Structure formats: C-alpha cells, structure tokens
Amino acid sequence: MNKNLRNAKNKLIKDSIIKAAREIIEKDGLAALSIRKLAKKVGYSPAAIYQYFDNKSEIVKAVIEEGYKDIIKSIVAEHSNFNSVEEEIRFKLKNYINSALENKYYYQAVMISEEKNILQFTAILNSDLRQEQSALQILIDLIKKGQKQDEFSDKKAENLAKTIWTATYGLITRMIIERVEEQKKQNELIESHFQLIFSGIRK
Amino acid sequence: MNKNLRNAKNKLIKDSIIKAAREIIEKDGLAALSIRKLAKKVGYSPAAIYQYFDNKSEIVKAVIEEGYKDIIKSIVAEHSNFNSVEEEIRFKLKNYINSALENKYYYQAVMISEEKNILQFTAILNSDLRQEQSALQILIDLIKKGQKQDEFSDKKAENLAKTIWTATYGLITRMIIERVEEQKKQNELIESHFQLIFSGIRK
Amino acid sequence: MNKNLRNAKNKLIKDSIIKAAREIIEKDGLAALSIRKLAKKVGYSPAAIYQYFDNKSEIVKAVIEEGYKDIIKSIVAEHSNFNSVEEEIRFKLKNYINSALENKYYYQAVMISEEKNILQFTAILNSDLRQEQSALQILIDLIKKGQKQDEFSDKKAENLAKTIWTATYGLITRMIIERVEEQKKQNELIESHFQLIFSGIRK
Amino acid sequence: MNKNLRNAKNKLIKDSIIKAAREIIEKDGLAALSIRKLAKKVGYSPAAIYQYFDNKSEIVKAVIEEGYKDIIKSIVAEHSNFNSVEEEIRFKLKNYINSALENKYYYQAVMISEEKNILQFTAILNSDLRQEQSALQILIDLIKKGQKQDEFSDKKAENLAKTIWTATYGLITRMIIERVEEQKKQNELIESHFQLIFSGIRK
DNA sequence: CATGAATGAGGATTCATTCAT
DNA sequence: GATGAATGAATCCTCATTCAT
Q: How confident is the model at residue C202 (pLDDT cuts 50, 70, 90)?
C-alpha cells in the first residue's frame, strides 16, 4: 500500500534524525544539540525537522526513549540458566555497565539531564518522576526472588535495589569521567563493586 | 612594591568574580552562567571580566579549581571520639554528603568536569590523574584502621575505598538530579546506602 | 455540461475555504489566519488551497468581499410598524451594531480594508468609491422621511447620515478593540450614543 | 560631564530607533515592525537594538508614548481666549483631528492595536485598560465647565465625553481609510460632525 | 583600568509557498 | 486534483566576545 510505504519512509527519516541527534549528544553533550546543527547533519533545512517532530523536546525525548531502550535491553536480556540469583544479577548488571560504557557520553548526557522528559526514564530514586519503572523493578523482583530462595537477607527490597542502582550509576559515571578505559582495570573495579554489594546482601 | 600591590588587587578581583560565578552556578546551574549575569553580579561591565580571564571557560575552570577544597574539608573535619571506625566513617561520609547537597549544582559541576586541573582533585579511580589524594587516602586509612582493629574484613583496602566512594558519589548525584529534597527521604536513602556498605565490609 | 459541473464543484470548495477562513478570523483575528490552520480546518493539505486561490491575500480578499453583505442585511431588515422615524432608525442601527458585535474581528477586518473591491461596499464618506450605496442610502432616506414628518431638523440629510454613520462606526470599533463585552456597559454606551445623535437632529 | 554626554548620546540613539520604528509603522503598519527591519533602517545590527530597549514591546510602547504625546499635545494646546466652551472644544478637537490626519497610518496602527501596552494610552471606553486618562479627562472637564456655565445640558459628562470621542474617532478613521484627502471635503465632514455633537449637548 | 557600544553567530519556531509525485 | 515533503525567509531574542575610547 502507498500509505504503508509512506509511513515506512517517514519512519526512516525520523530514525535518521534521531540517530543524528544521538551522535551529536554522544559527541558534544545534550546542551550542544540544536535544531540547526541537527538539520545540517541530516542534510535538511531546520524547518524540515519540524515536519517530523513537533519541537525540540520531542526529539530529545525520542532519542532518549530509543537509546534508553537499548541500555535497558541489556538488563532484560534473558540467559538460560543461572546457578544463583546473585549470578543472575551480576550478569545483568554487567551487561548494563558494558552497554553504558559503550555509549559513554550518551549515557552520561542522558543520566545527567534534569528534564522531565528524560527523568521519566532515568529516575531511580524519585518515583514521582519515573514512569517506566522497568529497570529498577527488575532488580527489585530479582532481589525478592533471592530473598525467597533464602539467598539474600531480608532488608527492604526496594531500598536495596535503589542503593545498588545508585552505586552502580556512580561507578559507571566515575569510570567515564576519569577515563578508565583499560579492560583489566574496569573489570577489577566492577568486581570489587559486586563484592561489596553482594557481601552486603548475602545471607 | 607596586607590582605586588597590583597583583594583590588583581587577585582580589579575580576572587570576587569566581565567588560570584560560584553563586550563580549554585543557584541556577552551570548552564545558567553567562558573562553578562556574572558581570552584573560583580558590578563590572562584561568587558571588564575579560581583563581578568581570557574567556568564559577559564572562569569555569577557576571556579571549580577553587572550590573542591571546600567539599573535601568536610571529610577531613576532625571529631573527638568514636566508638568504632564504622561510626567514624559514617560520620565523615555523612558530612561529605551533606556538604555536597548544600552545594548541589556546584558539586555536580565540579565532579563532572573532565579538566585535568580538576580531576587532579576529584579523581577517585584513576590514580594517574590524582595528585592530592587526601579524600580517598583518608578513607583508605580508616578502612585499614578498621581492619587492624578486626572490625572490617580483609579485602584490599584501596579497592574497598574506591567502591565506597563511587557508590557514595552515585547516591549523591542521583539525589541531586532527581531532586530528592525531603530530609526524611534523604536520610532513608543514606541509611540504606550505609547499611549495604557496612554489612559488606564488616567482619 | 462537464465544465459546468467542474465549475460548480470548484465554487463549492472555494466557498468552504472562505467559510473556514471567516471562522478563523472571527475567532482569533485576521493576524491569526494562516494557510496551515485554514487547510487543517477545511480538511485539505496546505498545498491544496493553492489550487483554489493564488495566495493568502486572495483568500482574505474573498472572505471580506463575500461577507459584508451579511452585515448590511441587518440594517435592511424590515420591521412592521414604528411610532416614529427615530424609533425606526434606532431599531435598524441597533441591529447593525449587534450584528457587528457578533462578528467582531470579522467586522473589523472588513471595515478596515482599503481594497477597492471592498470599499465599494464599506465606503461611507467617499461616494467615488461607493457603488452599492444601500446602507447609507437607507439612512439618508429615513432622515428625509423624518424631516418630512417634521420630526427632524432641516440639515442636509446626506451629511447627517454620514456623520451618524461614522460616529456609529467609531463606537462599534472602540467597543471591539477595548473589549467592552458586558451587555450592560454596551447598552449604556449605545444609549448615550443615540441620545447625542437624536437630540442633535430632533426638531 | 562625561556621564551627561553619554546619556545624551544614548537618548539620541534611542530616539533615532523610535523614529525609525514610527516610520515603519506609518508606512507598513504595526504588524510590519520587526527588529530586523528596524535595525537595518537604523544601521545597526539587530542585537544592538537590545542595548537600548529590553524587547520589542518596549520599543512599541516607546513609539506610542512618544507619538501619542504629540497627538495629545494638540488637544492640550492652550489658546488665549474663547468666547464659549463649545468654541474651545471645537478648537481642541479640530487640532486633534488634524494631528491624527497628519500621521494617518501611524494613528490608525496605534488606535487599532489591542496590545495592553498601547491600550493603556488609547483606551477611551474601558477605564480598566486606561492608565493615562488625560485626553478623555480633558474633554470631561470641559463639558463640566460648559454645564456649569449653563452652556451645555446636564447629561452625565463622562458619557457625553466618551460618545463624542468615539464618534470623532470614527470620523477620523473613516476619512483615513476612505482616503478623504481634499481639505474642503474634510472640513465639510468635520463641520457636520461638530454640528451634530453640539446641537446634541447645547442647552 | 574600565566601559559602553557593537556585532556575528546562533538559539527555537513559524510561515507562505513550491514541486515532484 | 491532491498531497507530503521541503525550504527560505522571517520571527524574537541571547550570548561570548571585541574594541575604541
């Protein structure tokens, strides 16, 4: 159908805009994203952008949504069999960390933003802001599972999850800012991080 | 000497500019710092600012350089007698967290910076960058003390310190970004954070 | 005939565009009329509009041309029996004023226009421009009637009519611009206006 | 003094901006006034304009204020001895009308505007909007004077004044729109207008 | 030493209009 | 006939920076 074709084409262009926006953010930070720069990168006039998005903030939202999905995927990623819940959480957090480190500046730009649009995806602590709770919720569920299996101690799962999450965020961010890029060093830090966490919650 | 006098005066003015800039950053965030606003606050013309700093980014650099010391002070602050090393660490970290939360935007601006001059103060993980290791070193020393007193388990003190530090940084940063401002909520999160850490290192 | 059919259809669409434009003007003022808004309202694409009108100003012209007749109708409206000519004039002017106030922005757009096509309908003073003199002529005739019946003084009827007309136009326009919308206030002003006029022409 | 000189220079430029703005308005209407056009006309960059005015609306306000003063002056203009209040009012209104006709488009642009900034000067009917009531107040005072001297009938002075004013506004506006430019015709219309008014209020 | 004046570049949007399809 | 896509020009406004004075 003609209409389908058009929709597809439309989506293609939308995607190319999002991609360009993401690249700008990754390279120069969220603050550097301007419609003009974006349009130039995509090869359109600034006005043309508005045919695909209502305003800048819609673009930002789309970029984040799109991009955050990727990061979240890493934590949702199923894996056949784990010997313990700890192993499962380790595996998922590791995935998340790697995924974040592969998109350093993008991750940072996104996580630092105080725009409502974005906080709705990134908020961990403030549930008033959060809309999609997937990431945190998954962690909470896993902890509860671990508690049921008598693997973890009986602290409030939500608090544990939040704490683990902020701690992990801190680790990732410092690694990015301080340019810890050597695999070995990264792994050492991550391992140390996990050890602290899990000796903290293990029974 | 004439020259000395001039230098002194020059430094005085530079300092007043830095102070004003810091206040603006703290009040409205780094993005809100403009030369015009700054000049107005200092009582000079925008052009005059350029007699003391080459450009805006020099000012930002100076502000940040100038001020991390304040934040660090909070952790050095001596306090007479503690019943345990844990108590001492809790006390100092709490001080640090409070100090950071009292200077939210400023703290964030400082900690996010990737300038070498600044990383020299703020780097936790990358010892190549760090020059003055005070903050981290204090924590390492405390952990070692706790280990000697058989209070803490025998993991590598430096790694523990780094992990605690990045975790704490993560907590602070998320509280700032997500505007967790209620005292009660803050304390709950901080307590949860401490519990995880200390059950992780306690013997 | 095919051609006739086509023409008819064409006119139908043109009319729907004009109608939509008029509604926009009436609702938000002439300045708010944009092709996009118009197209949306008619259910066409902006580009389609250009198949029926060369450009925006043609549309505006058409809207205005189309519609003054409506306003004029209000003054022609017959009414059975009046006790005096004054009463009749009052009745008709009141009708006219109300009709104008019900189409505020539209009325204003029409009356302000300096297009020849439109002045042909709206001109009061300049008889060179006026073609259809209905509105003014009616007033002139009424005044003459009043003079014959010894109700009005013997000034030149045409001048009186023009003066009454411009005065009424002034009243309406100021009420629109200054948003005098309360019925009571409107009536008070209109009554005061009539009193001045009629004590000016009564014998 | 240096400062005085600067202030004077500053005022000169401000005035030149106002003058240019006024010319644009007179030529193409208020809607055509843009900062860019204005800057070009004055020979400055758009940004420079903002050194003299905070924003566009301040400019518009200044233009009106400045210009409306001129028009108002005409009505305030003292004249030695009048034989009657009627004569005085006639004289002042005549001045006002002439002054308006000398600045046709400017007058129209100003009087048609619905911006609060401007209505504050131009509002006649709606005293909520009006701030500087000079023009209307003068007329009210004159009417009261005429009533005291038993020259005018005892209708409510404020209503009379408003009615006279809106009527006069209507006359002026129609003369402008319909391009009644011949002196003789203008005078005839004005005279007819005055006759209606004064036979309406004379005792 | 200080500043007022000036600017170019850039910020987000909106608009009338065109043109290939 | 109709439209989606595209654009250039315009809107107001802000900013860091420069320079003559």
A: confident
Strand E contact residues in chain B (32-51), C-beta within 7 Å = 43-48, 50-51
B75 DSSP β-pair partners: none
Amino acid at B2: N
Structure tokens at B181: 């401002």
**Per-residue model confidence (pLDDT) at position D66:** 84
Question: CB of B33 within 8 A of CB of B24?
Answer: yes
Least confident of A58-67, B106-115, C40-49: B106-115
Q: Is A13 helix (H, G, I), strand (E, B) or coil?
A: helix
Interface test with D, best of C64, C108, C124, C131 (most D CBs within 10 A): C124
Cα–Cα distance for residue pair D107/D130, rounded to 1 Å: 17
Give chain A's domains with CATH numbers.
1-53 (1.10.10.60), 63-201 (1.10.357)
Q: What is the pLDDT of residues D45-82, one digit of tens each?
A: 999 999 999 999 999 999 988 887 887 788 877 777 88
Q: Which amino acid is at D189?
A: L
Alpha carbon distance D83, D146 (integer Å): 12
Percent of chain A, pLDDT > 90? 60
Any idea which nucleotide's C1' is nearest the CA of B48? E2
| pLDDT for position B133 | 55
Residue nearest to nucleotide F11 (CA to C1'): D34
Cα dist from A122 to A169, B16, D29, D118, whole Å: 11, 37, 50, 47
User: Structure tokens of A202?
Assistant: 């293990």
Those residues whose C-beta lies under 8 Å from the C-beta of residue C35, and which sit 6 or more positions away, are C46, C49, C56
Amino acid in position D142? L
D162/C189 touch (CB, cutoff 8 Å), yes or no = yes
Residue B108 contacts residue B169 (beta carbons within 8 Å): no
d(CA B54, CA B35): 12
> Chain-wide mean pLDDT for chain D?
90
Q: Considering CB atoms only, which of B108, B163, B178 is closest to A125?
A: B178
CA pair distance D140, D134, nearest whole angstrom: 10
Contact D100, D170 (CB under 8 A): no
What lies within 8 Å, CB to CB, of C171 at 6+ separation is C97, C189, C190, C193, D163, D166, D167, D170
Our measurement of CA A38 to C1' E7, in angstroms, reads: 25
Nearest to D31 among C31, C168, C179 (CB): C31
State the pTM of this model: 0.85
Rounded CA gap, D73 and D143, in Å?
Answer: 19
- At A43, is the pLDDT very low, low, confident or very high (cuts 50, 70, 90)? very high
Give the model's pLDDT for residue B119: 81
Q: How far is the CA of A160 from the C1' of E14 (A)?
A: 50
Best CA proximity match to C115, nearest among C155, C156, C60: C60
- Please enumerate in sequence order all residues whose Cβ is within 8 A of that of C37, keeping only pairs 6 or more positions apart, or say none: C24
Chain B contacts of A168, Cβ < 8 Å?
170
| Mean pLDDT calculated for residue range D164-174 | 97
Comparing B166 with C135, the larger pLDDT belongs to: B166
Question: Could you tell me which residues are beta bridge partners of residue B202?
Answer: B152
Measured CA to CA, the distance from residue A190 to residue A192 in angstroms comes to 5
| Structural Rg of chain C based on CA atoms | 20
Token pair 């409205």 is found at B28
Which chain D residues touch C174 with a CB distance below 8 Å? 124-125, 166, 169
* CA-CA-CA-CA torsion sign (A24, A26, A28, A33): positive
Please tell me the distance from the alpha carbon of residue A57 to that of residue A59, in angstroms, as a whole number.
Answer: 5
Q: Which residue has the tokens 């109608």?
A: C19
Pick from D109, D114, D38: nearest CA to D67: D109
What residues of chain B score a pLDDT lower than 50? none
